[in-house]
Specification:
The protein is 42% helix and 20% strand. By secondary structure, the chain is of the alpha/beta class.
């Protein structure tokens, strides 16, 4: 992986393929490797940029509190470093929050937006408190508490479940805690939807246990020109559970 120093941290990224620039942003509490299987099917069409968000994978983080907007600013800095003026921005779950923030902060740099197993709504007060409670548990007991809570819900597929559990256990407590707090404080992006004029694809499995598919149905209703693909029997990890359909959908951003 390549690394750049930006915003007080070291940001790692994998780059492969050729064609239209496409950024694939991973979800919580994972890293860029969740995209590897789908990337194989896309690298003949896209110049793929797959970062590890701050605090995850091989990227470092900072000790101060940060926001989803800061994660989006990291991505903008990466694209500037690579000399890429416009790119498709695709985000999975928390990565979708980052992609939406990027679209709000840097709209002229977006040629298309992909939202995979994500949503525009902010956390309810109960959900927000739950994230802070989980961050405290991680601080006291390590990332295993997150792996125990999330791995079974990320996918019903045993292979995928084993992969994500191992991946979560490799993440740093600081990164996991920082991201939990950033997600808890993120703003509602509903009002942004009416302003999005570029190509948009929305992908969601109807067996998702973490973010209900209704959240994507609502986004589609608010964005008439968006392409919406609902995957039957697929959970929160479509890029691993149904790589072919995921790749086919993201090709619409070419």
């Amino acid at each position: 992986m390549e690394k750049i120093n930006i915003n007080g941290l070291s940001l790692a990224y994998d780059r492969r393929g050729k064609g239209t620039p496409l950024v694939l942003i991973h979800g919580f509490p994972l890293d860029h490797t969740t995209w590897n299987e789908t990337a194989v099917l896309l690298e003949d069409t896209f110049d793929l940029i797959m970062p590890d968000l701050r605090g995850f994978g091989q990227s470092t983080t900072i000790s101060e509190a940060y926001a989803i907007d800061d994660m989006a600013t990291d991505i903008a800095g990466l694209l500037d470093h690579l000399g890429i003026e416009k790119a498709g921005i695709v985000g999975h779950s928390m990565g979708g929050y980052v992609a939406l923030a990027f679209a709000r902060l840097h709209p002229t740099h977006v040629r298309g937006l992909g939202l995979v197993s994500s949503q525009v709504l902010a956390d309810s007060p109960e959900r927000k408190q739950g994230r802070y409670d989980m961050a405290a548990k991680v601080g006291g007991n390590g990332v295993g508490v997150v792996a125990d809570a999330m791995a079974p819900k990320l996918s019903a597929d045993a292979r995928v479940q084993e992969f994500v559990r191992d991946l979560i256990m490799r993440q740093s407590p600081a990164g996991v805690m920082g991201a939990l707090k950033a997600m808890a404080e993120r703003e509602d992006s509903t009002s942004l939807l009416a302003l999005l004029k570029f190509a948009i694809v929305i992908l969601h499995g109807n067996a998702d246990e973490l973010i209900p598919v209704d959240r994507s149905r609502e986004m589609k209703a608010a964005i008439v020109h968006a392409e919406f693909v609902e995957l039957k029997g697929i959970g929160h990890m479509p890029m691993m559970e149904d790589t072919k359909r995921t790749a086919e959908t993201l090709r619409l951003l070419k």
